[in-house]
Design brief:
The protein is an alpha/beta fold and 227 residues long. It has seven helices and six strands.
């Protein structure tokens, strides 16, 4: 599925989501909206609330392929087989060293202990590396500010189910207040995590975007016509 198709489905879902939750019909949607820092939101939703304040929602789908590869790789190979080679190499090197010093007692225990320690450390480093890849992808949403932020990825339900890294991604999004949408191979969209309202240090989040002022005018004009 192409990224544009993922975006189409996510945009359609979010349009219905905010129409239902916020009772909004005048939702503006723009694709590939740039910030003043030169980054881009794959889609930006905006509407005016009943108190006349502006509400912005950013959607990111550009990291979909990268995240899907990480999840698929972990589902198929776990933490990988290289860590077994690491343990075997450590065991062999330690056994040879004990043989050279003529310590038969040490040969019975030290190589095995070192091999297990090497295996555990390699596993932890590999797990941390995979989790860091997911964390970097989620942290990129900081460059696409909004009252609500959403991450959309294409990943099959089979790959997601029973995947410890998928659970980690979901909890990571929950901790950072990011909404999470997944789209399967049969184009089935699943809401995994709802976003948490972000705190804005400016007047509103539209001020972070180059089209912010024009969006405010369009929303204000729309509000006046309805009024």
């Amino acid at each position: 599925m192409a990224e544009s198709s993922i975006g189409d489905q996510a945009i359609e879902f979010l349009g219905s989501y905010y129409a239902k939750h916020e009772k909004k019909s005048g939702l503006l949607v723009n694709r590939t909206v740039s910030t003043h820092q030169g980054t881009f939101a794959d889609a930006l939703f905006a509407y005016q609330k009943h108190d006349n304040s502006f509400f912005a929602v950013s959607l990111s789908t550009s990291a979909s392929d990268k995240i899907a590869r990480v999840l698929s790789s972990y589902k198929k190979r776990g933490l990988g087989r290289v860590r077994y080679l690491t343990a075997a190499s450590i065991f062999g090197a330690a056994s040879y060293a004990c043989y050279l010093v003529g310590s038969w007692l040490a040969m019975a225990a030290i190589p095995a202990i070192l091999a297990v320690a090497g295996f555990v450390l390699h596993s932890r480093f590999r797990k941390h590396y995979i989790q860091q890849q997911l964390k970097v992808a989620v942290d990129q949403l900081k460059q696409q500010p909004g009252d609500h932020q959403w991450l959309g990825i294409q990943v099959s339900s089979l790959c997601w189910r029973g995947n410890a890294m998928a659970d980690y991604l979901s909890k990571l999004c929950e901790r950072k207040g990011v909404g999470l949408l997944t789209i399967g191979k049969r184009s089935r969209l699943t809401l995994r995590q709802e976003p948490r309202l972000a705190t804005c240090r400016r007047t509103d989040f539209l001020s972070y975007y180059t089209q912010g002022e024009s969006l405010r005018r369009e929303l204000s004009d729309q509000f006046m016509r309805v009024a």
